[in-house]
């Protein structure tokens, strides 16, 4: 499944960048259709030690009606760095729609609204990936983002 692949990438990326500072296990808040849930990361890497942990049970679940958005709120430690939102939706017949991915890099965006492509579509997954930018050589020109934490919301039709 997609989530297990991302956790594996998380673990591999974290092991390759030992020596960098680590993010804390922040919580992300998801809101949809009148309901709110706060979730911890399903995967988190301490980049200073290279130790990664997976906690698939941390994924949140919300019931949201088709056509309605899901709002994501992230804490300061995520908002100040680059982060990515990935949204998976299905159409009214249950067919997967193209993934929507947005990368947030402005350093002061604390919220994101995930909207389904049309009023009949249902959001089924919203994931937040926190990135840490590192350079393996110390040269800023070869710096690259590495996923250091991942949060997941599974959406069920209401």
Report, as a whole number of angstroms, the end-to-end distance. 23 Å
Largest sheet: 7 strands, mixed
Number of helices: 2
Number of strands: 11
SSE string = HEEEEEEHEEEEE
- The portion of residues assigned to helices is 10-25%
Low-pLDDT sequence parts: 1-24
Beta-strand percent range: 35-45%
What value does the average pLDDT take? 85
Q: What's the gyration radius in Å?
A: 16 Å
Q: From the helix content, strand content and strand pairing, which structural class follows? A: mainly beta
- Structural shape: elongated
Characterization of this structure:
- This protein has 158 residues and is mainly beta.
- Helices cover 11% and strands 45% of the residues.
- It contains two helices and eleven strands; from the N terminus they run H-E-E-E-E-E-E-H-E-E-E-E-E.
- Strands 3, 4, 5, 7, 8, 10 and 11 form a seven-stranded mixed β-sheet that branches. The chain has a four-stranded antiparallel β-sheet with strand order 2-1-6-9, with no helix packed on it.
- A hairpin with a 4-residue loop joins strand 3 and strand 4 (51-54).
- It starts with a helix and ends with a strand.
